[in-house]
Structures are given as C-alpha cells and as structure tokens.
Fold this protein.
Amino acid sequence: MRTYRVAIVGTGGIAAVHADNLSRTGGRAELVAACDVDRERLDAFAGQHGIPGRYLTLTELLQEAKPDVVHLCTPPMLHIDQAIECLEAGVHVLSEKPPALSLADFDRLDKAQARGGAQFSCVFQHRFGDASAAAQQLIGGSDFGRPLVARCDTLWYRPDSYWDLPWRGTWNAEGGGPTMGHGIHQFDLLLHLMGPWAEVTAIASRQDRATSTEDLSAAIVRFENGAVATIINSLLSPRETSDIRIDCEFATVELSHLYGYSTDNWTVTAAPGHEDAVAGAWSAQPLERGSGHVAQFLAMYDALDAGRPLPAGAASARQTLELAAAIYASAFTGAAVSRGQIVPGHPFYTGMDGEGLGSRVLDGTALRAASI
C-alpha cells in the first residue's frame, strides 16, 4: 500500500478536520504542504500539524511540493478553478462541497481530468462507513425489498451572526443557502442509497435569516425506481438533526444523527412476517466502521492503489449538484424539473440563482411584477 503525498489548500476550520483525519490513516498519507493567502494563519496551521511546506499560492505549491493529492478546503467560489489547476498539473483533487457553484462550471472538469490524467472527488463523507455500505447493498434486494417512500431532513440552526463572513449566504460565493451548503451532504447520501433521481418539485424561501439566499427549501423527488422522497433543508431549526428514513417493501431503514454517524445511529425495522430475514441480512454485514472523512480518505487511497475510479468522483458528484440545481429551478419557476433538463442554454445551468430569478423571487419583486 502506497503512502500518498497530500497538501491542504485553505487553512480554516474544515482544514483542521482534514489534517486530524489524515493523521488517522495509518501511514497512508504524508501531509507535506499547506497553502493559504494569510501568512499568519498558514504558519499557525502548519505549525500545529507539523507541515513542512508552506505556500501563499496554489501554483507555487504544485510546482515545489509536488503532492499526489490536494485537499481543497477553501471557500466554495474558489473550488472549481483550484480543482482545474490541480488536475491539469496531474494532481488528484479532493474538494470540499459544493464542488462548483453551477453545472456549467462543474462540467469544465471533464477536459481538465483528461488533460492531466488525474481524478476529481468531492468530500461526501456520509457515503462511507460500514452501515452505509450495508444499507446500499440491502435496499432493493430480496430481503429488504424495493424502496417505496423516503424522507431526508437536514434541520440545522444558524443565527444571523453566521452570515457575518462576507462570502456566506451569497449566490456568487456560496452558490446558495442550505440546499447547496448544508443539506447537500444528506441528500447526497440519499441518492447514494436510492439511486438516480428522475424529477423534482420544490419550494425555497427566506423565512427569517439575514441572508441573500434561501434559508429553507423543501422538495418532493421521484426516483427512477419509482420511489418518492421528501427533502427539507433548513437553517431555522433549534433542535438540530440530520435524518434519513427509507421505507422498503419489507424493512424501514433509518439514520438519525447530526454532523456524523456511527453504526449505532442506524435503525432497521422489519415488516410483520419478515423479522428473521431482515435481521439476518443486516447482522450479516460488517458494521464496525463509522462514517467520516478518514473513511473516505482510506477508500480514496485504496482506489488509487488499485487504479480504480475515485469514490464520490465527478460523475456521481454531478448527479448531486444537478439535484441542487433542479431544486432551485423548480422553486423559482414553479414547475417540475426532470433530470437532464438543465443543459447549456437553461438559465439554471450557469448558476443556482437562475440569472437573477431566485433573488427576485426571494425578494418578492418577481411576484409583484407578475401582478402588475
């Protein structure tokens, strides 16, 4: 098993999570460099984590440190251009969410991956861990049966002060509100467990918070397999929780946690008459390793060792980003949106705000104009 040279770009709060988890990979990763535009913050971070290489620009880091993998822990509006620079230099990328602020920007990754021969992956750590793998395998199988109905709730709380950072809560820096920046982790896991989505109908609103984007969205999603799910993304909920429930023909699968989970956070309930089959199928799975960044890191290294595509790679990350775009498009146009409908020329292809429509709807100006 190879040890990979890793660099972290951006040394804010999430970077510490990456550094701490890298230290728990059992020698699979060597943290060789860090980058930040703030020299004082960079030095403090590198000193704390024993990182020898310290750079003020990504270009300099790529040229001198020569990492195998770069972790992008920068603000969302920087992710895509930094990812492309890394990929074109032949360096693999693990990017924090959201991977891009629009489908148009995200689709630039294809050429960059081809030119540099490197791969892109997005931090969707909830996909990883034994219980998630077990649920994905059993949902739709003979013991649990096909999925019929589901719900996916990201009910979090953020006070007005959360938006004091100037880039938060803006379309051009974060790409959206809780749909893009918070709930995306949870509905990414829902897609991972349920398979491709087909159509979405949604609403989004600014209920209470001092933000330019929505602080709440709610969607009804139909999947290709016929299942129907509700998705709620909120920053208004004092009792914070993250929940997924999937009702299959013979079993209900539930996950309730907040920012990360262990196997203990999962509950499986059998339908009457199916207790033995459901319990036996679940207990037969390996259920030791919880979710989290380190689980995704190790899966990434295993894929690189074997020459396989990276997990949570560009294709599956795009499906999740496309669902976010469709939620916004449906919410701000009032129409259902199908997967594959948002293509070049569509107003929501180049931005989650739909060329300003989202802002006008949230501000009420579109409604007022329509009534004149």
